[in-house]
Amino acid sequence: MSQKAISKGKKAKTGVREFASGVQCELRKVDWPAMPVVTRASFIIIIMLIFFTTLVAIYDMGFSKILISLKGI
Q1: 71 in the Ramachandran plot: left (φ > 0), alpha (ψ -120 to 50) or beta?
Q2: 11 in Cβ contact with 5 (< 8 Å)
Q3: How far, in Å, CA of 20 to CA of 27, rounded?
Q4: Which of 3-7, 11-15, 20-24, 44-48 has the lowest mean pLDDT?
Q5: 3-state secondary structure of 13
Q6: DSSP per residue over 16-38, as a string?
Q7: How far is CA 1 from CA 8, 18, 21, 30, in A?
Q8: pTM to 2 decimals?
Q9: In degrees rounded to 5, what are phi and psi of residue 2?
Q10: What is the distance, to the nearest Å, from the Cα of residue 9 to the centroid of all Cα atoms in its chain?
């Protein structure tokens, strides 16, 4: 890195290989969750998704019926 870049607080540009190497190094440091934790969290997320999708659909049908009855269609 040049002295000008250091003095101005700019970072030196790196190549694609250096970037990929840095990413790979950082991913090794990650404390990945165990498979049972991921499975349980995914199951909870899918159940919540189904619940809230159903809830929104019920509200949508209810409001649609209210608006149609108010409009007189």
Answers
A1: alpha
A2: yes
A3: 10
A4: 3-7
A5: coil
A6: HHHHHHHHHHHHHH--PPPHHHH
A7: 12, 14, 18, 28
A8: 0.58
A9: -75, 160
A10: 32
